[in-house]
Give the backbone structure.
Amino acid sequence: MIPQSAFRNPKFERECKMSNEIWVFAEQRDGKVRKVAFELLSACAEFSKKTGQEVSAILLGSGLQEAVKSLTPSVDKIYCVDDPALTSYTSDAYLMNIAPMVKEHQPSILLGGATSTGKDLFPRLAMHLQTGYTPDCTGLTVGEDGRLVAKRPLFGGKIFAEMIFSEAKPQMATVRNNTFIVNPNLSKSAKLISVSPKTDPSPPKKKIIGLEKASGARLDITEADIVVAAGRGIKGPQHFKLMEDLAEVLNASVGTTRAVVDEGWRDVKDQIGKSGKNISAKLYMAFGISGAIHHVLGIGTCKTVVAVDTDPNALIFNYADYAIVGDLFQIIPALTEELKRVLAADR
Amino acid sequence: MGFGHSKFGFVSDFDIRISDLLEAKMDIFVLVKQVPDPEAIVKVKSDTELDIENKYFTSFFDEIGVEAGLKLKEKFGGKVTVLTVDNRRVDALRRGISMGADEAIQITDPALEGSDQFTIARVLASYLKEKPCDLILAGRQAMDDDAGIVGPAVAELLGIPHVNAVVGLDVEDPKKEVKVTREVENGKEVLSCTLPALFTCQKGLNTPRIPQVMNVMKAMKAQIKKVDLAALGLSPAEVGLSSAKVKVQKYLPPPKRPPVKVIKEDFPDNVKTLVKLLKEEAKVI
């Protein structure tokens, strides 16, 4: 066992309180701050009421005026490194700029989204800073003493663990999209601190040479509020048009199962479940999906789950909030039309 | 040749072995782990203990790493070594050997019990820093802790670049930059990267080969080289629970879902009811 002293050290608690800042890595893409950063800033605004700390955002990139503007109401301070060399993310350049800032200001907590960038940067940064890091969290709490408790799924979601940190600072975590709700009523007025960029004079070990954008304008399934998915029950890649139409009405993204990806009907980037992605959508709708364990583990943190399948004994119904036993080829077009009608009436 | 020499760290134009000029053979290490099978039952035993059904397999993403290593070896020649830190299970090493890996290393020491991912990374880096190495491959994440920490942390300790969630790897000449494709939200990013580097492998990079029965049998008898902490120059005080930067305060079962509401009306009324419930009860549309 770890001596309790290692994790309950009065000196550390004093230090956590003394450090007067909680940091959020405000990840941006094409100059636009991602929603998960605002979710985290909203959560930190609540934490700071308890701890009395300031909430700061760290923002890296190039041409960040819009990003700064969007962050200003949500945060007390923005540390901003605006440099053409940071236009696109690489772990090396980001780490070189973030690590000295952390060492200088010693925030007690550093949070980021569990995105492709967050999951790439945070483990390496944590190793560099010799501090603790919990990835892909689905819940966070902060005590009055400034100590972070991070909840995260293990074994693909069969178990959850509440993690605590040793004395090292900052306590680092990446958090899944949609774990916290954006508070639109924050009315802070952030102080902007421009930090001069650090660059490596030696040639870069890696650089981005291209970006292949996926076809369509839909969000990644990990980022979307609503995800609609079809399994093998959809019988062939040509029928995914039904899903696209439904997604269009709901402004949703289209996911799928391992079986469908293994058939080659859809790209692996859309695969939900253990060997694919875990999603935390507000609404998840499953059509023709039996509900194998490796799939349902990936939807464990979705808020509302709808399942439609012809088999009344399908396992997916055990994980759903609403269920219809029926034929997706009949249900989906009717559902698309009904949603169109109802949502149009709202507007 | 180790990390302190030509291939790692301070590169000097003059510090190149003659053999490096003559051939493009690759020294490849793959970090592997034996983890509970996705079907294995895992339950909370106490606040800090789990009951894990004894059903293990080689983490799927690690197999993708082994396959990627073998493909490069087939192209350029060289050696694929599988490497694990585990006091109990060596099956992932045997799986790697049966697929075609040349050598298997088990880092094992009683003091390692309870180590977190950062400590495991330090142990692996201590081993790797002394070895000739062009490429280190690992899975995107191990399918037990789902953390994805060890790969990037090893790269940080060795001072080499890493690329996460690689779905494409194109090596034309191991002495030059390689083309790596990684998955990002709604797209794929293509990078050029110098070697040595560490890549974590994502589904889509390849389909791991199924080993032949003969090779599985051979692998059962294959020599596995054991390495302990002393051999790595690490002391027990640097590893184990006491070195951990994070620890479990409490394990919890997954949150229970409320019972399902089955909409039993006939079509198309069931669809109308569903939309109504989503709007008025769940308030999600």
